[in-house]
Design goal:
By secondary structure, the chain is mainly beta. The strands form 5 sheets. Strands 13, 19, 20, 21, 22, 23 and 24 form a 7-stranded antiparallel β-sheet that branches. It has a 6-stranded antiparallel beta barrel with strand order 11-12-14-17-16-15. Strand 2 and strand 3 form a beta hairpin.
Length: 481
């Protein structure tokens, strides 16, 4: 995909950078909890890469009267609100005695505007802290273009994003990438490596130093209800900040694969139950989530690199994310990355006015930070990442009286491959897996997603039901090829 990458100047981890972090006091007003929206159940899931939007036409601002008293907001006052970030990246509105409005800025990027320091919230502080670590990614091929987002990993330009962003939904491996940083620089970038199984990719910005790497949190310590803040470029609007909560953890979904076929291009982006993928009509189409394993089940004994769908284990959030947020950051209340935004669920889009594509209904998904960091580190070191292989074909348990009916919910083993992980651990056809590494398994998609999260050779605990007995054992995963 590209020349061999140089070693990054900093290790990628969920630890804070080596430079001392300054203490950030709590905001003067607590952030208000945002209730989960009561939207109708979605009829399909979609990812949210899309073509570059039509330029917006600004309307003249309405005149307004402002009192001179107390309208000078000093950068130092804002710095007191956001603490350790010292107001970096804040544009502060200042009105002089003659009524002329100007902008007083502190050092650093200037995309986050604070007009009233007294009402700044914890969300403001997170936006100020993390925005310099999020970039806008513009991707073009010979006949297509699209916009996504990315997260800065190192000061010398390694950036994490989605695979479907850099491949234009799997339509092309020969793309030109230009990145816009938070402080307005336009930089060329090359692909270091891609991972279609977990929809992640690493790119390297060219000839740059001094970028602000993002800090990563430990996603295994998240709780449902935790604050979730998304930063990215929905509809091409760079630096957009939205917030909500962590709605669910270990959610398993299936999306159309963005793997580029061996020929280097794709006319239909995959078919089958996973939807159309990236079609030739427009880049960054919404992905239609399919029906999991489908009638034929989900085979883990064969490679899924070129299959029509992939299974992901994700964080669900109600923070508004839309086309263009792909690859951007989902953050906690400390401004640390908890996930890489990758997809949204959508209800029927028959009334959509955006070319058949619908926006956020409050059900979005992000790849957990622990998974993203593992993949990123492996790509930077080796050019690719590994994934676990169970060596079994699995299918959903049904209740319709068919042969796959079971007394318990889980993923039923349809067959095992001799010499692979499942067979070596003693699993047999007919066993129903109900737990994998402490995570409840309710179907084939759950099991496939959890297996793919782990690196090849990983050990995992697995609990299954055989007849009237519940058995717990350990498996050593093989390598997905």
């Amino acid at each position: 995909m590209s020349d061999a990458p140089s070693e990054p100047t900093e290790p990628l981890s969920n630890e804070a950078p080596t430079q001392p972090a300054q203490t950030q006091p709590a905001p003067t007003q607590p952030a208000q909890a945002q209730p989960a929206p009561t939207q109708p159940a979605p009829s399909q899931y979609t990812s949210f890469a899309q073509p570059q939007p039509t330029p917006y036409q600004a309307e003249p601002p309405a005149p307004r009267k402002r009192s001179n008293a107390g309208l000078v907001v000093l950068a130092a006052a804002v710095a007191a609100i956001v603490g350790g970030v010292s107001g970096a990246g804040i544009a502060v509105a200042v009105e002089s005695n003659n009524g002329t409005t100007t902008a007083a800025t502190t050092a650093g990027p200037t995309s986050i505007t604070v007009n009233n320091a007294k009402s700044a919230t914890a969300i403001t502080a997170v936006a100020v802290k993390a925005s310099p670590s999020v970039v806008t990614i513009n991707v073009t091929s010979s006949d297509e273009a699209g916009t996504g987002s990315g997260i800065i990993l190192t000061s010398d330009g390694y950036v994490l994003t989605n695979n479907h962003v850099v491949t234009l939904d799997g339509d092309s491996s020969n793309t030109t990438i230009q990145v816009e940083t938070n402080d307005g620089r336009l930089l060329a970038a090359k692909v270091v490596g891609t991972d279609a199984i977990d929809d992640l990719a690493v790119i390297k910005l060219q000839n740059v130093t001094g970028l602000q790497p993002a800090q990563f949190a430990d996603s295994s310590k998240l709780n449902v209800g935790d604050t979730a803040i998304a930063i990215g470029a929905p509809l091409g609007l760079s630096g957009t900040v939205t917030n909500g909560i962590v709605s669910a953890l270990n959610r398993s979904i299936t999306v159309a694969s963005s793997a580029v076929p061996s020929g280097g291009s794709s006319s239909d982006g995959g078919s089958g139950s996973g939807g159309s993928g990236g079609s030739g009509s427009s880049p960054f189409n919404f992905w239609n989530f399919g029906g999991g394993s489908g009638s034929g089940g989900s085979s883990q004994s064969q490679s899924t690199t070129a299959s029509s769908t992939i299974s992901l284990s994700v964080i669900q959030t109600d923070a508004a994310i839309n086309p263009g947020n792909s690859g951007g950051a989902l953050l906690d209340s400390d401004g640390k990355v908890i996930g890489v935004n990758c997809a949204i669920a959508s209800a029927s889009d028959s009334s959509s006015t955006t070319g058949g594509q619908s926006g956020s209904i409050g059900v979005g998904f992000a790849i957990p930070s622990n998974v993203a960091l593992r993949i990123a580190n492996e790509i930077i070191k080796n050019g690719s990442a590994t994934h676990g292989l169970l060596g079994a074909s699995v299918e959903d348990v049904t209740t319709d009286g068919s042969a796959t009916t079971s007394k318990t919910v889980g993923a039923k083993i349809a067959s095992v491959v001799a010499g692979e992980a499942a067979a070596n651990a003693g699993l047999q056809a007919g066993d129903v897996v109900i737990n994998f590494n402490g995570i409840p398994i309710t179907g084939a998609t759950d099991l496939t997603a959890q297996v793919r999260v782990l690196a090849a050779g990983s050990k995992a605990s697995i609990t299954y039901v055989r007849g009237d007995k519940t058995v717990k054992t350990t498996v050593v995963l093989g390598t997905l090829k």
